[in-house]
Automatic annotation (TrEMBL):
Belongs to the damage-control phosphatase family. Sugar phosphate phosphatase III subfamily. It comes from the Bacteria. InterPro entries: ARMT-1-like_metal-bd_sf, ARMT1, ARMT1-like_metal-bd. Residues 13-352 form the Damage-control phosphatase ARMT1-like metal-binding domain. The keyword Hydrolase applies. This is Damage-control phosphatase ARMT1 family protein. SUPFAM superfamilies: AF1104-like. PANTHER family: DAMAGE-CONTROL PHOSPHATASE ARMT1.
Length: 375
C-alpha cells in the first residue's frame, strides 16, 4: 500500500507521479485539451481513482483486472495496482488511444530517444568489440552483468533519484549466475524485458550470445504492448535499438545483423502481451503467457517491476526463499534486477545484517543488484 505519508510508496504516488506529469508536458507541446486532461489527472491522483472512460477500448480488460480498487483513493489500494493504473490513465490523458493526431504518440519517446542517442551508448557499443574475442566463460559473465546493471538505466528512477546515481558503488546481494547458465539450455529461453535503451541493448546482446554462441534454439522476448513506467521497452524500442547497433558498426553491427536474421527465421520471437502491462502479479498470469513460460528451459525476468510481480509485491522478510515465492511459476526462472523498491527475498541473514549495519539505504537506491534463479 502507499497510505503512510513519507513512505517510499507514498512518495512515488505523491511526488514521482506529479513530477513525471510535469516532465511529460515539458517534453511535448500538447494542445489545450491534452493539457486540461493532464491537469485533471494531477488533481485526481490526490483523491479518488476514476474508472477508464466509457468509450475506452480496454475498459473490459481493466474491469477484469480490478479487484474492487477503482472508486477508492489512489493511495489506499495496492501500490502495484495504483502505479500501473497511473500509466494507463496518463496515456489516456495525452490522447494515446483516441482517434486523432495524438493517437499512438509515445509521451516518453523524447526521454528514450535522448538516452539512446547519447554518447554513453556509443561507448558501451564500442566495448563489444573487445568482448567478442574474450574467452567464453568471461563473455558469459560480462554479458549477464551488463544486462543486470543496465537495469539501473530506468528513466522513471533517474528523474527522481538525484544526480549522484551514477557514482554509487555496485553491490551484488545474491548471485545465482552459475545456476542461471546451467538452466539456459539448447531449447527455448524467454526473456521478459524491462527498460528500453541502455537496458535493452545489453539484453539484445545477451540474446544474441544465447542464440549464436550458447546454442539456445529459440528466444522469446516479451516487451510491453504500450508505453509504460516511462522507459519500458516496446517493439518500437526493440527496432530502435537494432537500428542503433547497426549504425554503430563493428561487433554491435554484427549482433544487429544476426538478430534481424533471427527474427526473420523465428529464432527470436517478439511478444507484446496485454498482461505485460497488467497491475497484477505473475501468479495471476493468463494461459497464453503461462504456456510460453512453461515451454522454456529458463525465463529471465528483468528489472524491479518484473521482480515485484514475480515474487509478489509484499513486505516479505528478506530471508524468505526465492524458490518459495516463485513456486507457482510454470518453469525455471531467474531474476536480474537492481534494487529500486522495498521488495527483496532470497537473501541470507548475514547479507541482510551486513547491509543494515552500513546504516545506508540499500533497498530503493539502485546501488545494489541481485541475480536469483530456481530450477
Ligand atoms: O522495473 P524497473 O524499471 O527496474 O523499475 C521500476 C521502478 O523505477 O518503478 C517503481 C517506482 O516507481 C519501482 O518499483 C522501481 O524503482
Amino acid at each position: 500500500m502507499s497510505d503512510v505519508p513519507g513512505s517510499f510508496t507514498w512518495r512515488v504516488l505523491h511526488e514521482r507521479h506529479p513530477s513525471l506529469i510535469a516532465r511529460v508536458r515539458e517534453a511535448t507541446p500538447y494542445d489545450a485539451r491534452r493539457n486540461r486532461a493532464l491537469d485533471a489527472l494531477l488533481e485526481e491522483i490526490e483523491g479518488i481513482m476514476a474508472p477508464p472512460e466509457d468509450s475506452a477500448h480496454d475498459r473490459d480488460l481493466w474491469e477484469s483486472w480490478d479487484r474492487g480498487h477503482i472508486g477508492r483513493r489512489w493511495d489506499e489500494v495496492p501500490f502495484l495496482w495504483a502505479e500501473s493504473y497511473f500509466y494507463r490513465r496518463l496515456l489516456s490523458a495525452v490522447g494515446y488511444f483516441e482517434p486523432g493526431p495524438w493517437r499512438g504518440v509515445d509521451p516518453f519517446e523524447p526521454f528514450k530517444q535522448a538516452e539512446l542517442e547519447g554518447e554513453a551508448v556509443d561507448e558501451e557499443l564500442r566495448e563489444l568489440d573487445a568482448l567478442a574475442d574474450a574467452p567464453a566463460g568471461e563473455r558469459d559473465q560480462a554479458l549477464i552483468l551488463r544486462a543486470l546493471w543496465g537495469n539501473r538505466a530506468d528513466l522513471v528512477f533517474r528523474i527522481s533519484a538525484g544526480p549522484d546515481l551514477a557514482d554509487r558503488e555496485a553491490g551484488l546481494v545474491a548471485d545465482d549466475s552459475a545456476l542461471l547458465w546451467s538452466l539456459a539450455g539448447t531449447g527455448r529461453v524467454c526473456l521478459v524485458a524491462d527498460n528500453a535503451g541502455s537496458e535493452l541493448l545489453p539484453d539484445l546482446v545477451l540474446i544474441d550470445h544465447l542464440l549464436h554462441a550458447r546454442g539456445t534454439g529459440q528466444v522469446i522476448l516479451h516487451v510491453k504492448p504500450l508505453p509504460y513506467y516511462v522507459s519500458d521497452a516496446t517493439v518500437t524500442d526493440v527496432l530502435a535499438c537494432l537500428r542503433r547497433m547497426a549504425a554503430a558498426g563493428g561487433e554491435a553491427g554484427r549482433v544487429a545483423g544476426r538478430l534481424r536474421a533471427a527474427i526473420g527465421s523465428d529464432r527470436l520471437v517478439l511478444r507484446a502481451h496485454a498482461f505485460s502491462c497488467a497491475p497484477l502479479p505473475y501468479r495471476e498470469m493468463p494461459v497464453g503467457m503461462r504456456d510460453d513460460f512453461a515451454s522454456a528451459s529458463l525465463t529471465i525476468m528483468k528489472g524491479d517491476l518484473n521482480y515485484r510481480r514475480l515474487v509478489g509485491d509484499r513486505a516479505w522478510p528478506h530471508t524468505t526463499p526465492f524458490a518459495e515465492t516463485t513456486a507457482y511459476f510454470p518453469g525455471p526462472v531467474a531474476a536480474l534486477r537492481t534494487l529500486k523498491s522495498e521488495v527483496a527475498v532470497g537473501l541470507t541473514g548475514g547479507t541482510v545484517e551486513a547491509l543494515e549495519r552500513t546504516g545506508r539505504p540499500w533497498l530503493t537506491t539502485g546501488t545494489h543488484a541481485l541475480i536469483q534463479a530456481r530450477a
